[in-house]
Amino acid sequence: CQPMEKTTVLITGCSSGIGLGLAARLAADAARRFKVFATMRDLAKGERLLERLGGCCPETLELLQLDVTDPRSLAAAARRVQGQPLDVLVCNAGVGLMGPLETCSEQAMRTVFEVNLFGTVRTIQAFLPAMKRRRAGRIIVSGSVGGLQGVPFNSVYCASKFAVEGLCESLAIVLRPFNIHVTLVECGPVNTGFLENLQCADPEGSELQ
User: Fold this and answer.
1) CB 15, CB 46: distance < 8 Å
2) Residue 127 is part of a domain; what is its CATH number?
3) What are the tens digits of pLDDT across the range 102-149?
4) Which of 4, 36, 100, 191 is the most buried (most CB within 10 A)?
5) What pLDDT is attached to residue 1?
6) Which candidate, 77, 52, 53, 83, places its Cα nearest to that of 64?
7) Residue 80 CA, distance from chain mean position
8) Beta bridge partners of 39
9) Cβ neighbours for 58, distance < 8 A, ≥ 6 positions apart
10) Does residue 16 form part of some domain?
C-alpha cells in the first residue's frame, strides 16, 4: 500500500508554551500523519522541543529559524517550505506587556504590536500566495480572550489582540472562495512560560510607586 500523504504544518513561536506543545503533539502522532516545521526566533531553544520528543524525528519534524519581525527571515522560511504544499499555517508567536499604561515605554508598546499584530500579518503574507494558488489551506491564529474584552494592566496587549480579531474576521470572508479556512483561537489562561517572558513596566518608576 502507498504511504499516506502527510499534512504539512508550519508553526511560529515553538520555543515554549502552546507552540512547543502543539509541535510536539503533531510530530509525535502515532500514525505519522503530520510533517511539522517548528519555527522559532532562536534555534538554540529548540532543544526543549527535541527533549519532549526524545530526540530528532526527521520524518515528522524540522526546526526552522523564523523571526516574525524580520521580513528576510520570513522569506527564507517560505523558500525552505516551497517544495511542498503547506496545508496548515499556525501563527502563534506572541509577547505580552503588563503594567499601568503610564509606565509602559513606547518601545515596549511597539514591540507588542510588532510581534502580535504585524508579525501575524507578515507571516500570513509570506505563505498566503502559495495557498491561494493551490486553492487550499488553513490558517490558525493564536488570539486571546484579551482580544474580546479588556484585562486590567494589560491594555496594550489587549489592544494588539483586538486588532488581530479584526484582521482574522476580515480575512476569513475574503479567503473563503479560495478554500482557505481561517481559525482564531481565543485562548484563556494557559500554563506556559508566557508570564516568564512577559515584558513588565519599570518597577522603579515613580508612577508605579
Assistant:
1) yes
2) 3.40.50.720
3) 999 999 999 999 999 999 999 999 999 999 999 999 999 999 999 999
4) 36
5) 46
6) 77
7) 18
8) 64
9) none
10) yes
Q: Quick one: average pLDDT of 159-178?
A: 98
106 — alpha (psi -120 to 50), left (phi > 0) or beta?
alpha
Q: Domain for residue 1, yes or no?
A: no
C-alpha grid cell, residue 148: 474580546
Structural domain that includes position 145: 7-197
And the C-alpha cell for 34? 503530520
**What residues are labeled active site?**
157
Residue tagged 510581534 (cell numbers): 115
- Is residue 205, in this structure, part of any structural domain at all? no
Cβ atoms of 160 and 112 within 8 Å: the answer is yes
**Domain total for the chain?**
1
pLDDT in tens, 179-194: 999 999 998 877 665 5
199: its cell numbers? 515584558
Say how far residue 67 (Cα) sits from the centre of its chain. Answer: 10
Instruction: Report whether 50 contacts 24 (CB < 8 A).
Output: no
Which residues, other chains included, contact 178 with Cβ-Cβ below 8 Å and sequence gap of 6+?
Answer: 131, 132, 135, 137
The three cell numbers of residue 109 are: 508598546
Backbone dihedral angles phi then psi of residue 9, each to the nearest 5 degrees: -130, 130
